[in-house]
Amino acid sequence: TEVTEKLEEVVMIWIKQIRQVLVESEQIRREADDIGPSAELEHWKTRMSSFNSLLEEIKSSRVKKIISILQAARSKTLKQWKDLDGRITIAANEAKDNVKYLYTLDKFFGPLAKASPVTLMEQVPSLMNTVCMIYCTSPYYNTSERMTSLLLKITNHMINTCKVYLCEG
């Protein structure tokens, strides 16, 4: 029981740390008004990396041994642990999925930055088709909040491209 109590203390510390990571990941991001869509991809890539590292740690043999000892001892901390483990898995899957879908837009951003307004307008239909595909097929990115944020960033990108064109022309 003394070993079990020490292991439960360790797991409770992990639970507290993981909850903090989850809370921070769910907070609203503060972004500049003129930020482009590349920042959205970078955000999800960073988030994917963080959650994948966390998942690797949780699946490490050290953690698995501690959890199996607590399972044998029928510890009550395991309910919280399993809940968080599931939430981390969902967050990691969401980040991975969002990165996959946002990469489909990445091919537009380089050419859009250097385009003239006329070329820019020629790109808009295929860009919007890709955004529509993301909305229709992504299990995580198809919320009005995420789409609004993405479309705002795409618009900012297009406005900045036009500003550069006007200032150089």
UniProtKB/TrEMBL annotation:
<dbReference type="InterPro" id="IPR013594">
    <property type="entry name" value="Dynein_heavy_tail"/>
</dbReference>
<dbReference type="InterPro" id="IPR026983">
    <property type="entry name" value="DHC"/>
</dbReference>
<dbReference type="GO" id="GO:0007018">
    <property type="term" value="P:microtubule-based movement"/>
</dbReference>
<feature type="domain" description="Dynein heavy chain tail">
    <location>
        <begin position="5"/>
        <end position="167"/>
    </location>
</feature>
<dbReference type="GO" id="GO:0051959">
    <property type="term" value="F:dynein light intermediate chain binding"/>
</dbReference>
<dbReference type="Pfam" id="PF08385">
    <property type="entry name" value="DHC_N1"/>
</dbReference>
<dbReference type="GO" id="GO:0045505">
    <property type="term" value="F:dynein intermediate chain binding"/>
</dbReference>
<dbReference type="GO" id="GO:0005858">
    <property type="term" value="C:axonemal dynein complex"/>
</dbReference>
<protein>
    <submittedName>
        <fullName>DYH5 protein</fullName>
    </submittedName>
</protein>
